[in-house]
Amino acid sequence: MSNAFRELLKKVGSGTHTGKDLSREEAEIATRMMLLGEATPAQIGAFLIAHRIKRPTSEELAGMLDAYDRIGPKLVGNGEWGVGSGEWKRDKLAAEIPSSSSPSKETKPVTVLGTPYDGRDRTAPVTTLTALILAAAGVSVLMHGGDRIPTKYGIPLMEIWQELGVDLSKLSLAKVQELLEKTGLGFIYLPQHFPEAQELVTYRDQIGKRPPIATMELIWSPYAGEIHQVAGYVHPPTEVRFRDVFKMRGVTNFTLVKGLEGSCDLPCDRTAIIAISNPNTGEGFERLLLHPSDYGFAGKEVPFESTSQLITQMEEILAGKSSNLLQAAIWNGGFYLWRCGVCEDLQTGLDKAENLFTDGYAEKKLTEIKSAID
């Protein structure tokens, strides 16, 4: 048992009247001790459920992210060299870097798509299609996640990629770095690239609730260069916490979406509530209320009924055919093409997204990614 961890546990688990929030440094220490197994399983489970009940503060989320930065994998860019993976094992992973590696000359920000690790089970996701057309338009995209995990056990991003013929689960970090530079797509896969975080997955099932780590993961960026951080959320207070965390950590380019099932997918059946970074405002952001009906994209959400049906719908879109999922794919693709600076306004983005699908550019990008990992 760790006495040091016990003191942090007592602080967050003492109840409404005597419990206290952790400082950023304490939250980093607690997260580090859980990731490295320095706390016992009983301590970890107690901490996660107590922290869930208390609700994490922005300062605590920032500290948790600090620990992930130190211990977790991190691709590089903007002149940084090689593939890092946290201070404590950086030397070990340096051996994985090919001798031919050179500093990235990427100057555009990498768009990091944060989406719930426990997947989707009610609405058909289009995040993968968004990533494909962004990459096809010259925007590098980094995703992260694992397999089907508690508490929802919904379909995860990795499974969708695999069903589309792209198995990203066995790539080394060096190969992921290479793939990102060559094709504009990268994927950090927890079981392969961050086993310390993967070890914490079992607690999600045992406590029966998403722990605060599940909130933090939405805004984790396993990239050392300039980023455009994209994340979804469900509850409005979460957006406020995210913006506060960004201020603490110096993230100035972000898009936060009250998306479908907490993802970064914009809804079609209601107004999309979005916060985008804007340094010209006093608060550093501006609020967007996008009505799908104003652009001809209003409609019912396409339900997720089975993996096979979802993949068929995606393959139809990539083949330039009509699909009941096409409207959602264009609506989301067009928005993110605009937000990533490819198009000067939303309508131009929507038109370009449709062309990227119907003219086969998204399918060509998928083929390119397949060839790059074979």
UniProtKB/TrEMBL annotation:
The keyword Repressor does not apply. GO terms for biological process: L-tryptophan biosynthetic process. Residues 96-116 are annotated as: Disordered. SUPFAM superfamilies: Nucleoside phosphorylase/phosphoribosyltransferase catalytic domain (SSF52418), Nucleoside phosphorylase/phosphoribosyltransferase N-terminal domain (SSF47648). InterPro entries: Anthranilate_Pribosyl_Tfrase (IPR005940), Glycosyl_Trfase_fam3 (IPR000312), Glycosyl_Trfase_fam3_N_dom (IPR017459), Glycosyl_Trfase_fam3_N_dom_sf (IPR036320), Nuc_phospho_transferase (IPR035902). Residues 6-68 form the Glycosyl transferase family 3 N-terminal domain. GO terms for molecular function: anthranilate phosphoribosyltransferase activity. The keyword Glycosyltransferase applies. Pfam families: Glycos_trans_3N, Glycos_transf_3. Residues 121-362 form the Glycosyl transferase family domain. Keywords: Amino-acid biosynthesis, Aromatic amino acid biosynthesis, Glycosyltransferase, Transferase. GO terms for cellular component: cytosol. It comes from the Bacteria. This is Anthranilate phosphoribosyltransferase family protein.
